[in-house]
Design a protein that fits this description.
32% helix, 10 strands, Spore Coat Polysaccharide Biosynthesis Protein SpsA, Chain A, 8-stranded mixed β-sheet, alpha/beta, two-stranded antiparallel ribbon
């Protein structure tokens, strides 16, 4: 069955200053780090996965085109990426087709997200919730999903807060799902995080 207006965004525009640069193209488990998030987005039931490039656009684009082969993959660039994560969100939302009904947002430095969770969040949004998110005892969890009705709100975001302020404004209308999946919180910010993430489990 066709996903019917379900989309994914992968935010991969940051400068990775805490990592020292080059984070998204560093090798992790045999492939550039960013490719894992993109593969997860494409594994979800979506029409298209749009990757938002920025600070290291050329390197990330090269890594993706060499590793990920899928007609649903689209690359766009956030020229104002230095304004924070909201700039990536705005660029991604602007790139969605007019018939997009919902979008799941992935982060390029979170390589172990469960695609099934994105599907669950998108289901909740298409059932009527303006947005859906995960809650984990391990900390901030991803991905998140948004209905087309709040796309204008995403386009109005500023700074490096991402969609947190939108979740706060929507309050109880947001569908919240509990998860203890380790991939929902595995965020690679520093070289030490990469080491702690460890080798691929058998």
């Amino acid at each position: 069955m066709r996903p019917d207006g379900r989309h994914a965004l992968v935010l991969a525009a940051g400068a990775a200053s805490r990592f020292g640069g080059g984070k998204l193209v560093v090798d992790w488990r045999g492939a550039p780090l960013v490719t894992w998030a993109v593969r997860a987005a494409l594994a979800a039931q979506v029409d298209q996965a749009t990757v938002v490039l920025g600070a290291e656009a050329d390197q990330v684009q090269r890594a993706l085109t060499q590793v990920v082969v899928d007609d649903r993959l689209r690359l766009v660039e956030a020229l104002d990426w230095d304004q924070g994560q909201s700039a990536s969100l705005r660029a991604g939302v602007r790139a969605l087709p007019a018939d997009a009904r919902a979008v799941a947002v992935f982060l390029g430095d979170m390589p172990s997200v469960d695609p099934a969770m994105a599907d669950r969040l998108l289901d909740a949004v298409l059932a009527g919730a303006p947005a859906a998110r995960l809650r984990s005892p391990r900390g901030p969890a991803h991905p998140a999903a948004f209905s087309a009705e709040v796309f204008p709100d995403l386009l109005a975001l500023t700074g490096d807060q991402g969609a947190r302020s939108l979740f706060d404004r929507l309050g109880a209308a947001v569908a919240v799902f509990e998860t203890d999946h380790p991939g929902a919180t595995l965020d690679i910010d520093t070289p030490g995080d990469l080491v702690l993430a460890g080798p691929l489990s058998s």
